[in-house]
From TrEMBL:
Coiled coil: 220-251
PANTHER family: PHOSPHATE TRANSPORTER
UniProt GO MF annotations: phosphate transmembrane transporter activity
GO BP: phosphate ion transmembrane transport
Record bears the keyword Oxidoreductase: no
GO CC terms of this entry: membrane
Keyword Transport: yes
The name this protein goes by in its record: Phosphate transporter
Annotated InterPro entries: Phos_transporter
Subcellular location: Membrane
Organism per entry: Corynebacterium canis
Pfam families with a match to the protein in the record: PHO4
Main localization, broad class: membrane
Length: 536
């Protein structure tokens, strides 16, 4: 290699900075184009209105909310994959772009509830339509600003709790100002369930992840480590054997060397046959090699990968499929009965088991540690992609719902229980989501991927699968849980197995969970007063 071909560390850093500059520019331009495109569409869609500035601020607040969901919630979802070195930041970005936006467009729903039912009873209050608009705008602003603060601190928090807090603060403030209601419009039992989720979610996630990763560690990783140690010992013995043979061969006379070489040539020919016996060998050199080869085969290094990983992958595929059917695709109203769902889950599980088993056989010639890394990396990528799709189809509503509700009020002049969600809104919020991941998601990714515990593909897969299992089980049982809190608990669960959980970092995160609703509510309350003062 010539001197000109060598690059200094500073030159490499400059190239990376230049590359990131174009990524920044591309996403900035894409985000601006999305905002302008949606603004023009919304302007033509709502018809004649005098509230153009309200519409403009709604679009800004809504896309700002989606941007911060991407920086916090999406970053939280991909943190384990990036932390385990399974994906680079840019690879995570591409997968997020495909599956988050795909989930939002394909399964984001054609209609949305204008208010999150069960938290604030706005239908029981005599609200003016524009007061409702101000509540939704302030809720978006309050939730988005709190998410931005949490993201800058590297704290993964619940976006759902954030928007709920924004709505509560703005609604109670409007109720007091207009004498149409107050604290009584808040369903405090539902707030109590949210408080319960602060403990229940991480606890369930941690317990499931702990036992799942413990089983993976004892059944696969420890077995592989012992097999690697045995293989390394055999490799060293083989090297020592060759050295001893060379030294002893050199001490022989020429006639003895000739005879021994002839015997070794015959043994080399015999050893190439299948099913030959040790007794057929003449030289001590090949007899000892035979014993070493026999010991190497008895190690059966790939036994755990071939036996347990396909079963684990099948279990993960069935759980992810169930999560997709009952959660990710629920807005499509597929009308598949329970028998059909079970058949789909079973067929996918069987197909994945067969595919992974075949794949495990094709990589037998690889180094065992490398093969283990590759298999768990692929499994982790699939779980992360499924999480992204489910997230795009569900949590995008935290930004889309209030925007759609505001557009509906501006268009009809009245408050309706449901509002249509235009596809262009889903696309633009999806773009803002991915842009947020790129611009501000790194701190949360660092927290989730390496701050709370050391993550590698096997532990990352265990955390993601445990989180999916708990989310699915909680959805079926109707338990009040947060997917964000579950995943954080799952990461700490695998950290307890490896005794590397960072409880010191967990303290400010837990505090952030507790103050999410009050913080978003406070900003929402202040925001609605300012909006009402300007536009009221």
């Amino acid at each position: 290699m010539t001197q000109d071909a060598l690059s200094s560390p500073s030159e490499i850093a400059e190239q990376k900075t230049e590359s990131d500059f174009w990524w920044h520019l591309s996403f900035g331009a894409l985000l601006a184009a999305s905002a302008i495109t949606f603004g023009l569409w919304a302007y033509g869609s709502i018809g004649q209105t005098t509230h153009y500035w309200v519409l403009a601020l709604t679009i800004i607040f809504g896309l700002f909310m989606a941007f911060n969901i991407g920086g916090n919630d999406v970053a939280n979802s991909f943190g384990t994959s990036v932390g385990a070195k399974t994906l680079t930041m840019k690879q995570a970005l591409v997968i997020a772009a495909i599956f988050e936006v795909g989930g939002a467009i394909l399964a984001g729903g054609e209609v949305t509830e204008t208010v999150r039912n069960g938290i604030v009873d706005l239908h029981g209050v005599n609200l003016q339509p524009m007061d409702f608009v101000f509540i939704m705008m302030a809720a978006l602003l309050g939730a988005a600003l709190w998410l931005l603060i949490a993201t800058q601190m590297g704290w993964p928090v619940s976006t759902t709790h954030s928007i709920v807090g924004g709505i509560v603060g703005a609604a109670v403030t409007i109720g007091h100002r207009t004498n149409t209601g107050g604290w009584n419009i808040v369903q405090w039992d539902q707030i109590g369930e949210i408080a319960m989720s602060w403990i229940l979610s991480p606890l369930l996630g941690g317990i499931v992840a702990y036992f799942l990763f413990l089983a993976i560690q004892r059944g696969i990783l420890v077995y592989n480590q012992r097999a690697d140690e045995q293989l390394e010992e055999i490799r060293q013995e083989r090297a020592e054997h060759k050295k001893r043979h060379k030294a002893s061969f050199e001490r022989l006379s020429e006639m003895q060397q000739l005879a021994y070489t002839t015997a070794m040539v015959r043994d080399a020919e015999i050893s190439r046959r299948r099913g030959f016996d040790r007794a057929d060998l003449e030289s001590d050199y090949f007899r000892e090699l035979y014993e070493l080869d026999d010991r190497e085969q008895n190690v059966n290094a790939f036994r755990a990968l071939q036996l347990w990983v396909p079963l684990l992958a099948s279990l993960g595929a069935m759980m992810i499929t169930a999560m997709m059917l009952f959660k990710g695709l629920k807005n499509l109203h597929l009308n598949i009965d329970n028998v059909g769902n079970i058949m789909i889950i079973g067929m996918i599980g069987a197909g994945v088991w067969m595919a992974v088993r075949v794949f495990a056989r094709t990589i037998r010639n690889m180094e065992l540690s490398r093969a283990t890394f590759i298999m768990f990396s692929w499994m982790q990528v699939f779980t992360a992609a499924a999480f992204a799709f489910s997230h795009g189809s569900n949590d995008i509503a935290n930004a889309v719902g209030p925007i759609a509700a505001i557009l509906d009020v501006l268009h009809t002049g009245s408050i309706n229980a449901k509002a249509a969600v235009p596809p262009i809104l889903l696309v633009c919020c999806g773009v803002a989501l991915v842009s947020g991941l790129w611009f501000i998601g790194r701190k949360v990714i660092t927290t989730v991927g390496s701050g709370l515990t050391r993550i590698h593909p096997a532990s990352g897969f265990a955390a993601e699968l445990a989180a999916a299992t708990v989310v699915m089980g909680a959805s079926v049982l109707g338990l009040p849980v947060s997917s964000t809190h579950i995943l954080i608990g799952a990461i700490l669960g695998v950290g307890m197995v490896t005794r590397s959980a960072n409880w010191g970092l967990m303290r400010p995160i837990a505090l952030a969970w507790v103050i999410t609703i009050p913080a978003a509510a406070g900003i929402g309350a202040l925001g609605v007063l300012v909006l009402r003062l300007i536009f009221g």
